[in-house]
Design brief:
The protein is mostly helical. The chain has 13 helices and no strands. It is found in: Membrane. Keywords: Membrane, Transmembrane, Transmembrane helix, Transport. One of its GO terms (molecular function) is phosphate transmembrane transporter activity. It is a multi-pass membrane protein.
Length: 318
């Protein structure tokens, strides 16, 4: 059973990179001036280093949802495999999804099947703030868009913008490592059956997991780039900067209260905000509708899968 858990966790980390990491890198490299290696290097460094500095509140929230202290190897496999199956199945039938939502749904379904009391306040905060995050990011991005952009002399607009984007991308990678990226830390904690705080100090293991995440990001980059080109709104360097800043601020705020937020959904909301400042016609609304579909589908689908898998395992083992 341990080897099944190991394979499931490694696949989970890779898929996180393919979904989340690829989206972040695609955002960063959509316009000229940002080399591919820069966002990849930031993510590779920040994923292990941020938890090492004691920032693992989001991973601990996932641990509380899982009831990790009483979770057997089989239950951990049920959670990870249900999450992966939901994401894979959604992709196959063309339904938008979110790996963060799938994990929260699977954790809740598995806990119910094991009769582990759910922390209603934690779950409610996670769902509520998760729903609000894209709208908060949209509002912040819209407000930033209204600010005047006048680079000081003798800097050219392009040079000034490039410097700001480097800062914004650093903020974005930091925010991801402090929030959504802590799914990686949680998966490693499942493998080692150790508290997330202890796992965060295991630097070699965390860098190995980060390397696997980056491999997934590189693998998923072509599809993520295609989605952005036909996604929410027309992109230019200034609008991307505004969306990156808004997303970073939103997700870091979620980290402060230990709430996992979907980085990809927050980016989608931020891009919506920059588009609405120009015109409602500048927004491709079908891309926005994907967020709603993801919520309606992903949480219950992953929850039901995990619940059924846990009950099946319990029946077979009794």
């Amino acid at each position: 059973m341990f080897y099944l858990l190991l394979i499931s966790a490694l696949a989970f980390v890779f898929v996180n990179g393919r979904n989340d990491g690829a989206a972040l890198v695609a955002i960063a490299t959509q316009t000229t001036g940002v080399r591919l290696y820069y966002p990849l290097l930031l993510l590779w460094l920040f994923l292990p280093l941020v938890p090492l500095l004691g920032v693992w509140k989001v991973a601990d929230s996932l641990r509380q949802m899982a009831g990790l202290e009483s979770m057997a190897l089989a239950s951990a496999c049920c959670v990870l495999l249900s999450t992966l199956l939901t994401v894979w199945g959604s992709g196959r039938i063309g339904i938008p999804t979110s790996i963060t939502l799938a994990l929260v749904g699977a954790l809740s379904g598995d806990a119910l099947a094991r009769s582990v009391p759910l922390d209603g306040a934690l779950l409610g905060r996670t769902v509520g703030l998760g729903l609000l995050a894209p709208f908060v990011a949209a509002l912040i991005a819209a407000l930033i868009s209204l600010l005047p952009f006048h680079p000081p002399r003798p800097f050219s607009a392009n040079r000034w913008l490039k410097s700001f984007r480097a800062t914004a991308l650093t903020l974005l990678a930091l925010a991801y490592a402090a929030n959504d990226g802590q799914k990686v830390l949680f998966a490693v904690a499942l493998i080692l059956a150790a508290p997330v705080g202890t796992v965060a100090l295991n630097v070699p293991i965390m860098f190995a997991a980060s390397t696997l995440f980056i491999a997934g990001a590189i693998a998923g980059l072509p599809s993520a780039s295609r989605f952005l080109r036909h996604g929410i709104t027309a992109l230019d360097p200034l609008k991307l900067l505004q969306a990156e800043l808004a997303t970073g601020v939103t997700v870091l705020a979620g980290s402060a209260v230990g709430t996992p937020l979907s980085m990809t959904q927050s980016i989608t909301g931020a891009l919506l905000g920059t588009g609405l400042v120009r015109s409602t016609r500048a927004v491709r609304w079908d891309g926005i509708a994907r967020i709603g579909v993801a919520w309606i589908w992903t949480l219950p689908a992953a929850g039901l899968l995990a619940f059924g898998a846990e009950k099946l395992v319990s029946t077979l083992s009794s």
